[in-house]
Design brief:
The chain has a 5-stranded mixed beta sheet with strand order 1-3-2-4-5. It is α/β, with parallel strands linked by helices. The chain is built from 10 helices and 5 strands; from the N terminus they run H-H-H-H-H-E-H-E-H-E-H-E-E-H-H.
Length: about 250
């Protein structure tokens, strides 16, 4: 018979009494601690998670639509109402993402982009021409408002592309549309006071209707609420400017 040699090896990290003595004397390097696998944690089953507001908040728009016939929500009136509220918020946020800047259009785009805009969207149109200082000043104000109120649509069009032979003396002209109809028009900068500022333009735009929409409200806000928001922004800007001026004086 052949010779069989068996080698017995302790578990990694285990040691004998002899090994311990030799390690203390410095004859052997200290052994590494024994390997211990991490504890097993089973993945959470989504069906077992508590169904509350945070559970709804984690859902996408498609997920919330799929939950419409969920029998568990039929028995929970609060969750069903919150699902609908959250779904409306996501849809509103998706709508807001369409705007946020002053978009150039041509005469052939006007009907599609302005007259046929959805009834819940207010459209602000500036008729302008390059090289006219007043047009540039009002354009800067509108660009600022477009970023602050991304649920309101802002477009710009060269005046004669929109209205043939439109006189330059009437520029800039601001038109406000809703549901395919002109709701207001402002010729020149006189309507906006001595200093044409984004806050001044915002107040004029909201004189009769809640034209400006920041997209934070699921339901349409009243004119008073919009104007109050504009005034708040104006006050915050004035306070910031005074603080910056005071800091400049103190540094001198």
């Amino acid at each position: 018979m052949g010779d069989y040699h068996y080698i017995y090896k302790d578990l990694d990290g285990a040691s004998t009494q002899w090994d311990d003595i030799q390690a203390k004397l410095g004859n052997l390097p200290p052994k590494k601690p024994a390997f211990k696998p991490p504890p097993f944690t089973p993945a959470e089953d989504e069906a077992s998670l508590p169904k509350d507001k945070s559970w709804i908040d984690d859902k996408t728009e498609q997920d919330l639509e799929d939950l419409e016939d969920d029998p568990d929500l039929d028995d929970d009136r609060f969750l069903e109402e919150y699902r609908r509220k959250r779904l409306s918020e996501l849809r509103e946020a998706a709508k807001v993402a369409r705007f946020g800047s002053v978009v150039p259009i041509s005469g052939s785009d006007f009907v599609r982009e302005v007259s046929q805009a959805p009834p819940d969207v207010w459209v602000v149109v500036i008729l302008y021409k390059e090289g006219i200082a007043e047009c540039g000043l009002l354009m800067q104000c509108l660009e600022d408002l477009a970023t602050k109120y991304p649920a309101t649509k802002f477009v710009k069009i060269i005046s004669t592309d929109c209205i043939p032979n439109y006189p330059d003396r009437n520029l800039p002209t601001l038109l406000v549309y809703n549901s395919g109809a002109v709701k207001a028009n402002h010729v020149g900068l006189r309507s906006f006071g001595r200093r044409c500022t984004p806050e001044g333009v915002a107040l004029v735009l909201c004189q009769s209707d809640p034209v400006l929409n920041d997209g934070q409200s699921v339901n349409g806000r009243s004119r008073e609420a919009v104007i109050e928001g504009v005034r708040k922004r104006f006050i915050e800007k004035v306070v910031t400017q005074h603080e910056d001026k005071d800091d400049g004086y103190s540094s001198d």
